[in-house]
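During the reporting period, our protein records have gained a structure token line. A sample record is set out beneath this paragraph:
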Amino acid sequence: MPATLAPRTRRIVQALLYEAIAIAVVGPVLALAFDEPAGSSFVLALLMSSIALAWNYGFNAVFERWEQRRGIVGRPWRVRALHGLGFEGGLALILVPVMAWWLDTTLWAALLADLALLLFFLVYTVLFTWAFDRVFGLPESARGGAAR
């Protein structure tokens, strides 16, 4: 039987776990991919994670309200894919300028550099959300309840 969390607590736990795993993966990848010093890539990963954490919390709150208004019960793969695309697309709009500034490059170069991360995170987001739902159960919004 999955653990059950209040909606706000659920979003906070989900966001913190998601970002902790992301930092553990992205920090070393940034150092290798961008030939950056480990300290610099770690700070960039933390900055990107902080931005993503705020976006994760806000996006999930809006997504769950949308789910509830649409009367969606359960989370079929098409809803999970929509969730992943919406989350990653919005995050890219925020992070590409940050990466361009940090790496002192053009927006185009930052977008190209970010594509590999976007592909990784699209898959990671869908799989992480699925695993999180298996451990903590579906949110009230996907069970037909009220989202807070």
